[in-house]
Design brief:
By secondary structure, the protein is mainly α. Helices cover 66% and strands 0% of the residues. It is built from 15 helices and no strands. The radius of gyration is 20 Å and the shape is globular.
């Protein structure tokens, strides 16, 4: 404002920063997982340029913070498990402090990634179960400590505030588009598919549904990734495969609502449940 710079420039600087930080974090993590430099760079670009960001990039871009922090959080967990001490758990907690508070669900849905890494290294005996448990306890404890302020506020809001989710979206709407193939290519979020009488809610997602070349390219990229998990041998392959599986299951959620997976049946029984709508 003081420099009289238009808001659209600030917005583009903000989005570019989120994309860069997300890609940088994945590059850093990939190097720790044994990727060569060019492979780590490829992973970074695939992650930071995912169509996942399209639904958030204009109205609710702050919700991309947990997405941008995922690589950093897992990377700090890797170092915490390998080296012990408080330095890397504290770094992980600082990541949580930075990307948390804006949306509890978004933060909760990246939490399985560091947990799965700790399980992976403990099962493969890369680190002892004791070391993995200590790392988890330190990261979890410090993360809860730095998140206490917004957890308290969220508890107050849920008890005394307006049940806002029941008015802004329905479980039928948000679950109707979350099919596995769409989720795996970075889409599946309901706001990528709906439109009002004027225009689509997310204009930029339109070509992913109508442009033949873009459809083929995005599905080919997904299939190449699956082929890589099957054919290429590297130490973190099992972790990556399990992460993809769990992530897809969480992304699909209650779809189809009239016959959900047993894991989500308890949530979808009550379509007005705040917990179900939040997740």
């Amino acid at each position: 404002d003081r420099l009289h710079v238009p808001d659209w420039i600030a917005h583009r600087l903000w989005i570019a920063s989120l994309l860069f930080i997300a890609g940088w974090g994945v590059h850093w993590l990939a190097r720790q997982l044994g990727f060569r430099a060019h492979c780590a760079l490829g992973a970074a670009f695939v992650y930071m340029l995912s169509p996942y960001v399209l639904a958030y990039i204009s109205r609710t871009s702050v919700m991309l913070l947990p997405w941008a922090g995922l690589g950093w959080l897992v990377g700090c967990t890797v170092l915490a498990a390998r080296h012990g001490g408080w330095r890397y758990p504290a770094s992980a907690a600082l990541v949580v402090l930075t990307v948390g508070s804006t949306n509890a669900t978004a933060l909760a849905l990246i939490a399985p990634a560091p947990v799965l890494w700790l399980l992976h290294v403990a099962i493969s005996r890369e680190v002892s179960w004791r070391s993995a448990t200590i790392a988890a306890a330190r990261i979890g404890g410090l993360s809860l400590l730095v998140s206490a302020w917004w957890i308290v506020f969220l508890g107050v809001q849920s008890r005394y505030g307006i049940d806002i989710l029941s008015y802004t979206e329905t479980l039928e709407a948000v679950s109707s588009t979350s099919i596995a193939p769409e989720a795996m290519r970075g889409l599946g979020y309901w706001l990528n598919y709906i439109r009002d009488h004027v225009q689509a809610t997310t204009d930029a997602a339109g070509p992913y549904h109508t442009n033949f070349a873009l459809i083929v390219t995005s599905y080919t990229l997904m299939l190449l990734g699956l082929a890589g998990l099957s054919l290429v041998r590297w130490p973190g392959r099992r972790f990556a495969a399990v992460l993809l599986l769990i992530g897809t299951v969480l992304a699909v959620g209650g779809y189809p609502l009239n016959n959900p997976a047993p894991l989500f049946a308890g949530l979808t029984d009550n379509t007005r449940s705040t917990l179900a709508l939040a997740l």
